Amino acid sequence: QVQLVESGGGLVQAGGSLRLSCAASRSIFSINVMGWYRQALGKQRELVAVITSGGSANYADSVKGRFTISRDNAKNTVYLQMNSLKAEDTAAYYCAAGSGSDFPSSLGQGTQVTVSS
Fold first, then answer.
1. pLDDT per residue over 5-41, tens digit each?
2. Distance (Å) of CA 62 to CA 30, 35, 82
3. Core-most of 2, 28, 58, 106, by most CB within 10 Å?
4. Which residues have a Cβ under 8 Å from the Cβ of 102 and sit 6 or more positions away?
């Protein structure tokens, strides 16, 4: 397994932007799928975005066109650029990693994002 540490969360006004980072404890070159989940208070965990080792990305409909996931294998880091933030994006965001059917086999501790309206 890989240890994942998120950073970059905080308080932002609606319409603003944040970039989350996820630093892995080892090389992510061979990790097929990296992604981001989020969980708001009282709600189920939601898969926000994933990116494969080949660079293909997929997004939840709720964030499509506003969020961008990317990975820098040289830095063992995955990013989530979040633009045009809305109050409903408020949640704890968790980095995830895995290979195919076992995704996610690793989850970070999370970073809080709060969007004020």
1. 999 999 999 999 999 999 999 999 999 999 999 999 9
2. 29, 15, 12
3. 28
4. none
